[in-house]
Fold this protein.
Amino acid sequence: MKKRPADRGALYTVAVFVLRVMLWLFCGVRTRGREHVPAQGPVIFLCNHAHALDPMALAVCVRPRQPHFMAKAELFRKKWLAFLLRAVHAFPVERGKADLSAMREAWHVLRRGAPLGIFPEGHRYTSGEMGEIKSGAAVLALKFDVPVIPTFIYGSFRLFGRTRVIVDSAMDLRDLRQAGTDKETCDACVKRMRQALESLRDQCAAWAAQG
């Protein structure tokens, strides 16, 4: 039987502490909106994806919650990165197809009352523009009656740069959840997700410009 992801106690705590110090000191990572992070219970953090360090940054910014992540399976082929990803509860997902195993893993995470972090674009987009949001993210958001919290990471994690993270309040998806998960409803959910993330992107850009 496949072992479910579990909170890793000391390993997770140490990994997040080290990452927090490094990202704060060397990459200028600053966060707003941490008051929107629920203290307990299942939650989905919906985040843009521009850098390989995004899962670690998100884990740091929503502490003390310990989110589990869907991360592309290719990343787990690099041993050092796989170690860091597993240390912050990441599990692999095969892109470009319906990965039922990853969906089941996500379901078990939420069912246990743990947080789940998803990067709905599926790929990294370093140009500053957002990519297409995949319908799988909408299915997750609609199928599970849990808070969906948009989060945006702005910046390239450059040495001594300015990387800004904003955690927003939960999206209101009650009307869409009542409609089910048909294509029309999923498309409407995708549009709403994109609007939420683009609004946060603009807020992050304005914040970074302030210095």
Summary: The longest strand covers residues 148-154.
